Amino acid sequence: MRRPGFPDSLFRLAAAAALAMAAAGSPATAQTRGGELIVVQGSNPPSLDAMTTSSQASRNINMNIYETLYGFSEGVKPIPILAEGVTISDDGLTYVFTLRRGVKFHNGKEMTARDVKASLERYRRVGATKNLLDPVADIAITGDYEVTFTMKKPTPTFLEAFSSPRAPAVIIPAEEADAEAGKTSFTGKGPYRFVEYVPDSHVTLERFDGYVADTRHDGPDGFGGRKTAYLDRVIFRIMPEPGAQVAALEAGEVHLLEQIPVPAARRLEKNPDIRLYENMPWAFLTFILNIAQPPADNPKFREAVQVALNMEAILAIATEGLYQLDHRWQYPGTTYDPGDIGADLYNLGDTERARRLLKEAGYKGEEFSILTDSNYPQHNKAAVVIAEQLRAAGINAKVKMVDWPTALNLRLQDSGWNGWTLMMGIEPYLGPVGLIATLTSPARPHFVKPDPELDALYQELISGPTVEARQATFRKIQARLYELKAIIKIGDVGLMQAARANVKGFRPFRFPRVYDVWLEE
Amino acid sequence: MAGAAEVPLAAEIAAGRRRRRAAFLRRLFGHGSFLIGFVIMALFVAIALAAPLIAPHSPIASDYRNLNAPPSALHWLGTDAFGRDVLSRIIYGMRVSLRIGIAVVLVTGLFGTVLGVLASYVRWLDGLVMRMLDGLMAFPGVLLAIALAAVLGPSEANAVLALSITFTPRTARVVRAGVLVVQGMPYVEAARAIGAGHGRIILRYILANALSPLIVQLTYVFAVSVVAEAILSFLGVGPPPPAPTLGNIIAEGRSSVQETWWLVTFPGMVIAVAVLGLNLMGDGLRDVLDPRQIARREGN
Fold first, then answer.
1. Is the pLDDT of residue A25 over 60?
2. Quick one: which of A283, A74, A50 has its CA closest to A165?
3. Is B261 at the interface with chain A, CB within 8 A?
4. What residues of chain A lie within 8 A of the CB of B264, using their CB?
């Protein structure tokens, strides 16, 4: 928009000045060392022993303390972090990892191959996703700074799986490798070191001045890259009540909210002291059916559920407006994006068709119990709307709301529930292998009864020699998931974060990276 | 034998009873607090009973195009995070509160009376029953209800059960105290002397005359049940979603009080007014039924 009488040349000059000022304020020139950053999250970390937990509340903190040999880049590609690199033999049976030299643990000791082997052997014992090392027959120290993995068979997707941050295969000092789960001293080698954990209150981290940055990068890249700790201390404060979190942010008592309710974010949009960050897509919202029990053991019934659901209504309510409609079991535009497969069955909200299918299925009005939890609003709101839509189609749907740990226990029972609402956060981020592993044997699939065809496709996926071959397999998986209709994709969910305006350098990611973040005076 | 003129006729007895009842009602409705409380509660009950007729929208039908809408001509009290009409949810929520309140009063009244009478009338049971009830009363009332509801699971029936277990001991104590006073009265002795059975003595002579404190106690139980149900629902152990209750409407709005103030304010006001009405009614009943106050009035 132009003001009357404002000459074009001046207008352009003003625009150029604005750009120059923006450039001058870029992170490269303005970092300030020191200060204390207070990050807020809703729940306690179940453990600070990073390899033993796949909880997001733990990952938020742990990924600032620990590092792995390999991890995902911003573009979700495996990149070396503590490793200099890896050489994979032509037959895919040997992986030789060379380590970066001079890298120090928080106790001052230098990391060597001995620490790596000890950490990974511990991961085999206590790692929360220890099966990612199943393809590895042996880990050998082949030099002070070199470890060699001998594989049982070629596993082309191994490096991706090994880079997973879900329950990361972090490297800890060899002396701690015999410790039982949760019994280490939380010594890592990341840019911040652990100081104190007071459950229900806070976790305190301090800058690790002996941190050796990875100079191969210009700045942070995903879980790796060149990390710089500017802050003296970082406190992760545990505040369960979202209203209290927002009030604390507005009052300036805390600096960064790991998650802010969307209505509050909308209200704060114009507040100059607050900056909002949108993480989209953050998770899949799914509706899982128990196909081992009637009525969802009947494929016709499952089809009725699929066509009855209006995903837009469910997502709009469950996410408070932060969503994208997406039928795909991989995020759009990513390597394994399966295209339009399944789109014809997605977001139909076709009550009449559902009624016809229910009649064909011989459904007699049996109760259909939708399990959900009170802890995650996305879960319980989705359950309420799904139940409403299914009732409109003639299904006797009831919502069974319990707390999150109880829901996790109940869904492990073969009976007592018929549907379950679940957000899958980290699994879709990990790519197809991480996601489909939760739906296939040998794990217990979320939908209870394994599907042999899907199991076979998973094996085909993990042994696919090339990306193209795996992409083709994933398209078959996408088609199979829409045939099976045992887990229904509702859509993609976003995550809104917020920080005080004086928090600089923060970029939203899978965990709050507190390195390369500083506080402006 | 006394003359026929000295024996009151049945018609005169009935007329006397009618006069006493009319005087009692005049006293009751002439009591300012009681009248205000009664009007409030009558309105509450009327709205709850007429919910399907007066609620402008369905209390459970969501509308994703109209989420968290502030009060407007279409939705007088706004909509919630599901796009549901808050006014309709409050009206139906009052129905749930009323249902639970009445159910708790009935269950508590029945068991409280039975236990209270047993403890006072059957002397050897007194210690046993009262120590058990004392044990239950050692827990703070609402806390016990929350614990029970959490164990039993969220449902309307379980909320009634939890609240009834919580309030029965208090009611039983009140009944026991009343019965202990009344059962020593000469007319009870007289009834026993003319050979009346235990059932007749308890129902006709003891309970009928120990009813006043019980009524006051039950109005109190009703008021507390309405509030306690809101607390249970607020904590997620009341009737499960999507059932509307005053407590869960507030619970759903508590994380966004600044953004959706109408979710907390309006049901909160309803709870406050209902509790005020019930307390005023209770106060009025106590004043009118309290024998000492009656004596004082009559003395004046």
1. no
2. A50
3. no
4. none
Measure CB to CB from residue B259 to each of A264, A312, A380 and give the nearest one.
A264
Residue among A242, A261, A317 whose CB faces B62 most closely: A317
Interchain proximity B256–A380, CB inside 8 Å: no
CB contact burial A140-154 (16+ within 10 A = b; e otherwise) = eeeeebbbbbebeee
Domain count for chain B, please give it: 1
Burial code of A417-450, b = ≥16 C-beta within 10 A, e = fewer?
A: bbbbbbbbbbbbbbbbbbbbbebbeeeebbbbeb
Residue B144 within a domain: yes
Give the residue numbers spanning the domain of A65: 36-239+501-519
Instruction: Name the DSSP class of A296.
Output: T
- State the Cα–Cα distance between residues B94 and B49, nearest whole angstrom: 9
Say yes or no: A290 and A433 in one domain.
Answer: yes
pLDDT at A400 over 70: yes
Residues B203-224 have pLDDT tens digits of: 888 888 778 778 878 888 887 8
Min Cα–Cα distance to chain A from B174, Å = 37
Q: Is B71 an 8 Å CB contact of chain A?
A: no
Residue B67: its chain A contacts at CB < 8 A?
316-317, 320-321
Residue A393 corresponds to which amino acid? A
CATH number for position A444: 3.10.105.10
Provide the ipTM.
Answer: 0.77
A205 and A312, same domain (yes or no): no
CB-CB under 8 Å, A388 with B241: no
Q: What's B228's domain CATH number? A: 1.10.3720.10
- Could you give the 3-state DSSP secondary structure of residue B219? helix
Domain that includes residue B152, residue range: 87-299
